[in-house]
Amino acid sequence: MWLFxxxxxxxxxxxxxxxxxxxxxxxxxxxxxxxxxxELSSIIHEGAMAFLKKEYSWLAPxxxxxxxxxxxxxxxxxxxxxxFVLGALCSATAGWIGMYVATNSNGRTTYAxxxxxxxxxxKSAKKxxxxxxxxxxxxxxxxEAPKSEGILSTAAGNALEVAFSGGSIVGMVVxxxxxxxxxxxxxxxxxxxxxxxxxxxxxxxxxFARVGGGIYTKAADVGADLVGKVEAGIPExxxxxxxxxxxxxxxNVGDIAGMGADLFESYVNSILAAMAIGAVYSFTSDGExxxxxxxxxxxxxxxxGVFSSIVGCMMISQKAPYAGTVRxxxxxxxxxxxVVKRIEDGDAAxxxxxxxxxxxxxxxxxxxxxxxxxxxxxxxxxxLSVTSGVLAGIIIGIVTEIYTSGDYKFVQNVAASSxxxxxxxxxxxxxxxxxxxxxxxxxxxxxxxxxYYLAGMFGVAVAAVGMLSITGISLSVxxxxxxxxxAGGIAEMSELPEGVRKITDHLDAIGNTTAAMGKxxxxxSAALTALAxxxxxxxxxxxxxxxxMNPYVIVGxxxxxxxxxxxxxxxxxxxxxxxxxxxEEVRRQFREIPGIMEGKAKPDSNRCVEISTHAAxxxxxxxxxxxxxxxxxxxxxxxxxxxxxLLGGAIVTGVMMALFMANSGGAWDNAxxxxxxxxxxxxxxxxxxxxxxGDTVGDPFKDTAGPALNILIKLMTVVxxxxxxxx
Amino acid sequence: MWLFxxxxxxxxxxxxxxxxxxxxxxxxxxxxxxxxxxELSSIIHEGAMAFLKKEYSWLAPxxxxxxxxxxxxxxxxxxxxxxFVLGALCSATAGWIGMYVATNSNGRTTYAxxxxxxxxxxKSAKKxxxxxxxxxxxxxxxxEAPKSEGILSTAAGNALEVAFSGGSIVGMVVxxxxxxxxxxxxxxxxxxxxxxxxxxxxxxxxxFARVGGGIYTKAADVGADLVGKVEAGIPExxxxxxxxxxxxxxxNVGDIAGMGADLFESYVNSILAAMAIGAVYSFTSDGExxxxxxxxxxxxxxxxGVFSSIVGCMMISQKAPYAGTVRxxxxxxxxxxxVVKRIEDGDAAxxxxxxxxxxxxxxxxxxxxxxxxxxxxxxxxxxLSVTSGVLAGIIIGIVTEIYTSGDYKFVQNVAASSxxxxxxxxxxxxxxxxxxxxxxxxxxxxxxxxxYYLAGMFGVAVAAVGMLSITGISLSVxxxxxxxxxAGGIAEMSELPEGVRKITDHLDAIGNTTAAMGKxxxxxSAALTALAxxxxxxxxxxxxxxxxMNPYVIVGxxxxxxxxxxxxxxxxxxxxxxxxxxxEEVRRQFREIPGIMEGKAKPDSNRCVEISTHAAxxxxxxxxxxxxxxxxxxxxxxxxxxxxxLLGGAIVTGVMMALFMANSGGAWDNAxxxxxxxxxxxxxxxxxxxxxxGDTVGDPFKDTAGPALNILIKLMTVVxxxxxxxx
Lengths: 727, 727
Prior knowledge:
By secondary structure, chain A is mostly helical. Chain A is 83% helix and 0% strand.
């Protein structure tokens, strides 16, 4: 029976891989007919891959050392080490492929936008010498573009198609490798507890990737903006700015590799936690444990999630194989004919949303059927547990959107506070972030209580799996944003017509609402997964109770509660330090390279890439190692109950700080954009200057410390879980 | 036997009161010989008293309603209601007397500084018409000042003497009323559990006083600074600024009434927690409970602390009765003759430090003797528990000082980050605050583990009592700061010679190091007291275990962990909102009152006082009520274990946020001052502007939200403790 589980998991993992491969083949077919765009794309590609190579070469010894320690540890041994290394390898591979594809899609997206434009628009290029030639050569693919077949016949549509193809490859590779890795670990170990080392490998890489990526991207971003835009007064992504390449590389390093590793970790750990709990959970107080039924259910949920995601992607993208067939089938469903028509007519935002909803709908239906198949009389309990988790995640996403979007009064109030100066912008953003912890935490609590009531801790664990089961499509939507963003950067640096940039900006904006839902699911699932892993730890460590009246547990709680603060402090400092180096370097180049400001001399972009790379790698060490070392130390010194307390404390402050920092950062970002749209005296006003400060404060909040906290709490918990036999 | 405890407590409470009364009589003797100073002092006095009157009239119905609910509650009844009302009354009375004395000392301090100056200095008044007359009439007391008898024969010394007298009255009234109130409650109830309602009364008033006071003072401060200093470019405390009076009133409302109520609450609750635990604690696992020995020990510690504090104050102040006699005795001790000589020679900073150390030394010696008397064979365990707590508190104070003083690299780094702009100042301050949670939390953990190992939870509880036992003198030092600060404000508004302002600024600075120690003790004791109250709650609610593997406890932890964030957000918003009203009003007056900027027309200060008063009162309601209502709700809806989890979560994030916010705020404040001292381009530079933003962000951090959090966690715990019979 367990071999059957392995087989099914492998098949659906392979299916995701196959889908990604097919889309990639189609993507490769399209050519970049503009030499400057192609050149920039390949510079960014090389910078990004060079960073990854270096990052992995730094992480390899770390993985090796931990693997040796695991082999040497009594009660763990080779199996755990194998799973750990495999988890790290799969995560790294997913990051590698994702980055490879994303940096191959950015230039193609730019070119698709350019090529799809009307001829007269193309001629309005700012000053590029290559443009006419480029536009001419571009005409061929444009006219060949299958207007009636594709959902998107406009320039924006072409570009969306390319960018989304890139994003969907990232998404599918992550879930595919996740399932394949899990299947292999399970095949070789056949022990759900040892299997959790796979999650530890994934989490370790994820934390380093998130922190390193976050430092890289923000150092380059701040350096490019502060010296370029503010001091020298040149536009964003101006080719004269030596940090611009690093900035564009950084978008990939942070938002593709970092986010990919992050979601790989979330996905894998939610499944693992549910498997570990499912193996021993029983619906009756004296009854039999679920055993393989409990282990298999999360795997089947995930497998079905892959299928649902693929169908969702096919609704969005014509590049997908059999997209036409699938749409045909969907169109035959009651009420769906109009929906498919609207997608085919080219409503891009609607297509993204529909694709996600179709995947979600399929997922819910599948969950219901799987619940019946696996749990007979308890089917409804399990199904409702999953549903409560998914609903909570979606509402958290909506609440997050309301707190951080310029369309609502919260962000508008932050923008309005720029009337009384910079300090009030900072204060109102901080206050908003703190307040925004309220509803999500209550929703997490509600979902925990409902799931627990219905199906015990197994219910909580599968709720998290449910939230993440359609990671395939939600990561596709998430990852397409940075690709579009990068495409815009390339357009700017290639001095293409302004319309191209407008298209890419528009594309970037379209996915935001859908991405917000994904973010909500990520936050909610992080909390639930951490709780499930925490319970799995207490099972594995044979702890009867973690009583907070016990002073060791109290001490653990306090130390655990402190760690997220220390971690955030280290991350923020790392970004500041790295940004400081970058600022100095850009200032130096502007000062020392003659003719750079007139566009006669080329800036030394490589130096900036090196600085970001070096800073990211050196600065990620301390926070990363701390996250692994402190739980181990506390476990050995103060015992397993204290370690339980530590995990509890870390989850509590970690969840709060993650929500606080992510939402403060998001609100400042959009308050600035809101002012740039012309409100409160608009761009260039003192209001705008105040909002820019808020945005800069928010950068490490939302892109470095905040998202890394979600990984931190799971990494600490999974480390404790893997090492539980030692305490 | 218990009547004997009541008697001793009453006697030492009365002793503190007697001491305060005698010092007050001496203080009253000195006259203010400068009409403008006297006038301003009385305006501030009236504004402050009017605020208190209004605040109490708002709080009275609240106290009444809660009292009625307590009477009606099954298992509580009249006794609890009586203790609750008495606690609220004593806190309010301590606040009232403290404010009364402080606002009567500020003008006297100004005048003492003026009168003590050499005659030629006095003539250098800026432009005051009254000054010559004032200086003449001032000569009489100056020449009469007993040069050889007093420790302080200079102008600064005279002023210090007056300001410290005021401060010591505040300190002694707080501890005196604390002991007297406790004694009466104990006399009438003779039940340590019901007695905790006294602490609930004290905590409720403290939270409202801290939050209301914090809002009041920061609204006035920001309003006065932003429009006066920044927009209109007039100096601080300029009489033309209509918000200046409100600002000076605010210093008293926040730093005297707020801090007094805060320490009253800390003091009383630490004693109550130790009494509740001591009553049932046993040194042997099967032995007899300590009973009255456990109840009496914290009371005796506190009583001895009063005596120690009084001796310490006598070392500092000549106005104290029998000061000469006490000093004579101390001088005869080995090695102390030189110390007394140095004090008598007029080294003010040394005097403050010595007074505190003498009190501390006496306290430690007394603790040792009391431990032997109370606990025979376990004496050393108890003594070391107390000592570990006190040491932890002192080191926390030192660490806090290192993180927030301009003399060390941390604040200097924040100042240095102004080179790269406002955002980096904000980020480095936030990062510093987060990092500063580390060592204090580890020290709290260490002290908890040691005390617990030595004397169980009783050890933890008495460690907190030990930390706060010399509140009498440490609050004296704390409270003298704002009196000196106010004296400076009056000097500025009266347009006295610059030397007077310099003296008061100097005085303000002298007490800082000593005050830092007091702050450390306050933070450490808050954490330990909260833990002790928490354990007392679990005893009172008959909870076996609060197991964080129980989902109700997890949910409680998460909700509890969230509350400090919501509370901080509400507080920050309240300050912003109130400051906004003030800014508009000051702008309006500058615009609409003709001749105001030329000094020809008087500003409407009353309007500003009204605005601050109204804003403080209306905005304190929601955070205050939330702190009481949420634990009650969770207790009723989710049960007593979930409520236990809530308290645990609130303590964890509350301690972290309190440290983070207080230290970030302190660091920004001193980074600004460091730049104003001439570093990093000094005052008026862009660096300075960036630091001012940091300081403004820090204002609600360190003066509103941060300190209120210490009360919040204790209030929630004591509410749970009092209502425990209901759950």
